[in-house]
Design goal:
2 copies of one chain form a homodimer. Chain A is of the alpha+beta class. Chain A has 2 domains: 148 residues, Creatine Amidinohydrolase, Chain A, domain 1 (3-Layer(aba) Sandwich); 233 residues, Creatine Amidinohydrolase (Alpha-Beta Complex). The first copy, chain A, is 33% helix and 22% strand. In chain A, helix 4 crosses helix 5. The longest helix of chain A has 20 residues. The radius of gyration of chain A is 23 Å and the shape is globular. At the A-B interface, helix 9, strand 7 and strand 12 of A face helix 9, strand 7 and strand 12 of B. Chains A, B: This is Putative dipeptidase PepE.
């Protein structure tokens, strides 16, 4: 194995304390409007958004983690002792921790004391809308409400979703770095994929390329391969070898400093059929049409329409044609016909046109863009209309 | 980059339909005892346990996924259309899907119809205990209950947790394969780490080794490095270069066919200090003491005690000293002093002794074992008492 390229750190890790404080102040301004005394947060992106707390340990479901944003003053982290050292390196000075796991309590007493202190009138908001969940066992959720019978838990008035929608320059820089890493890895796919290589080996080797090009980790890789297209876009790899005539698609969400890219590339194994050439060009045309329309004031529905007119003239492409992107592989809103919200500068989006082929298979393409004050900017290096080629060696061509 | 070793597939991918049917039947037998007409499942491991549905797409929080286990008959998958093709390849024949995202509904009408059909008397169990959560926005949870005002949602009587506790031979084979991959990758750490190498590059290169040795992906890597120990065990890597006298710890949860290993290794950068030698040997001694005690009939508390006597004679080590392992990086139960349940054949556990050093830093060690009918079997290749060495090159030794 060759050594990876030297550590690519074009942007400083983490965020300045001032940015994390500004996020908190922005939340508190919205909380005042909504009449909330506190926000109660339980999920990875929610805690990280305000504290900068970055760890892969959320893969362990054992322990709950809580962050309380009060109406004024600094957030309080109520977390298991195993995280106290790492949280202690953040800007959060009020870190309350308990030895976890522990019989019975699981931190709920500590949390309820904190909520009594920070929300004496009991008006607590929790993210409850689309794309959220409560990362707490239902039994503990019932227990918490029993500990706080006079507290009233409501939704968070979409405060967190709204704040996360608009990325700061520092956030954009991290996403752009992730995109650049994936762009370089996609450029190198011909090194690792070709006729006869098993799809699961392509997946392994592609993840190695992502790491070699500087990814911190590769939380997402899906794709497909088949003659002229593939059956879906979320399957894991099989050991089936790539064959001449296959279209290979790799879709990756890799991370740089906790921020994702999310885009894909298609490859033709050997010379593409005329149908594949046309389908790929149409996907690219749709992404370009989306990009050309994307600007502040246009709506998500407009963006859907621009791509849909290329993909499904006179009809409606099923599903969505892209989504928000940032701290998670996918974020809201979706690019769908009924999403009337405006595009705004600072939004980072994927454009994800999909074609269903006459065979019933699909082909998808995906790019990442930033909405700017005057239009949009590519964060992924956009693909041209010609599908990339994985050449068939001369010897293989001659074989029966 | 050299080519990875040929695809290591010592066990067939997935599970025979008979095994998935047997899991369902076992759940149904327990449901009958508990008086439940249906189980409602929403999380990745829960759906996969019964269906075999394996995808990394759960990283996208946009869409809910549901599986309904009826009192008799086959499970019903109520899932977004984007998953219908992949679920269609499973043994589940009743797949009900909706175009998602969709305004308003998000599948709840389809789900409530299914629950009316499968649980006409309204007795529905949901996993609600330790280590669970409901993967559904709170607003949708309220909406579902409003759609089904006569249904009574209760906990699942720990049915899912109990079933998952005992691994089948096919599950054990997958975990053992993951362990073997990680064992090989750990053996190669001296290829990629040594004095002067930045810790974040060590993390990247180690993940590449895991993939090269056959991991499908590497969902978890944490660790630390510092003089004689490290501050915690969940931090991401910094760009600080390794230095002579550092102890480097790498802790990985890599996946083979959806099953995890979870163990770590310590390395001394240059010759270890006598304190490091002693601390490492003590950790290994604790893991061995746990292994020697582990057998059916001993309790989790006994297992804690055996390790604790080596680590903290006369006292109690804080936190837990291991946990279950399988479809998730960590599973219940925890190895803690108050866990009175018995060890049983088929349990897969981590033994994870921890020492707090006089400096306040920590050292941890971790191995993976299977409880057998007569004792235990190592799944990771157990470390010896001597800490592994990352040699300091002669030139570096001579430098000031």
């Amino acid at each position: 194995m060759t050594a990876p390229a030297s550590s690519p750190l074009p942007t400083p890790r983490g965020f300045p304390e001032a940015e994390l404080r500004a996020r908190t102040a922005a939340a508190q301004a919205r909380m005042a409007e909504a009449g909330l005394e506190a926000l109660l947060l339980t999920t990875e992106p929610a805690l990280r958004y305000f504290t900068g707390f970055l760890t892969r340990f959320w893969g362990s479901p054992t322990r709950p983690w809580f962050l309380v944003i009060p109406a004024s003053g600094d957030p309080v982290a109520v977390i298991p002792a195993i995280g106290a050292h790492l949280m202690g390196q953040s800007w959060i000075s009020d870190v309350r921790s308990w030895s976890s796991p522990e019989p019975g309590d699981t931190g709920l007493r500590l949390l309820s004391d904190c909520l009594v202190e920070k929300a004496p009138e009991g008006r607590v908001g929790l993210p409850s809308g689309p794309e959220t969940h409560l990362r707490l066992p239902l039994s503990d959720w019932a227990r918490l409400r029993a500990l706080l019978p006079r507290h009233h838990f409501t939704d968070d008035a979409e405060i967190l979703a709204d704040l996360r929608l608009l990325k700061s320059p520092a956030e954009v820089a991290k996403i752009e770095t992730a995109c650049a890493i994936a762009t370089r890895a996609f450029d190198r796919v011909p090194e690792i994929a070709g006729p006869g290589v098993a799809l699961d080996q392509v997946f392994r080797r592609f993840q190695m390329l992502c790491l070699e090009e500087g990814a911190d980790w590769v939380p997402y890789l899906a794709g497909g391969a088949g003659p002229g297209g593939y059956g879906d876009v979320i399957s894991p790899a099989t050991p089936a070898p790539l064959q001449k005539g296959d279209v290979l698609m790799l879709d990756t969400g890799l991370c740089h400093d906790g921020y994702f890219c999310d885009f894909d590339r298609n490859f033709s194994v050997g010379a593409p059929s005329p149908e594949t050439v046309r389908a790929h060009a149409r996907l690219i045309g749709a992404a370009r049409a989306g990009f050309d329309l994307a600007r502040p004031g246009a709506t998500f529905a407009d963006l859907f329409g621009a791509m849909n007119r290329v993909l499904t003239p006179g009809g409606t492409t099923p599903g969505r044609l892209g989504h928000g992107l940032g701290m998670e592989l996918t974020e809201g809103p979706s690019i769908v016909p009924w999403e009337g919200r405006d595009l705004q500068p600072g939004m980072v989006l994927t454009l994800e046109p999909l074609l269903t082929l006459p065979s019933g298979q699909v082909m998808v393409h995906e790019e990442n863009i930033l909405i700017t004050p005057t239009g949009a900017r590519w964060l992924s290096r956009p693909s041209g209309p010609e599908i990339a080629l994985l050449p068939v060696p001369e010897a293989a061509k001659a074989a029966p």
